[in-house]
Amino acid sequence: MRGRILLVDDSDMVIRLVAHTLKKAGYEVTPTNNGDEALAQLNGQDFDLLVTDLNMPVKDGITLIREMRHLDDYRFLPAMLFVNNPDENIAEYIHNQGATLLFSKNHLKDKLVITVDKLIS
Hints:
Blueprint: E1 4-8, H1 12-24, E2 28-32, H2 35-42, E3 49-53, H3 61-68, E4 79-83, H4 88-96, E5 101-104, H5 108-120
Parallel strand pairs: 1-2, 1-3, 3-4, 4-5
């Protein structure tokens, strides 16, 4: 196993695609559908990376990352935030909110594993 990833997205299609891709690359993936479920998973488990969507019902990705940063064990956990169409303004805002990296969903198939490898290493 190369690392444990907490994956958060409200789209089952995205969850299936990302989980399949990362598992195939040797990662252990714990999928959840919203920020509240993700915070519950963080309680008592060890993860090497958080991968979350920005726009979700119940709790969005920014709120999830901000709340995660208040947990001692996860204060410095790398957090990759998915967006459909990233731009410079949103990238700066997201970084200021505690995300490690902004990642375009357009690159899920071609750059996901390389990006995750860099964040975990």
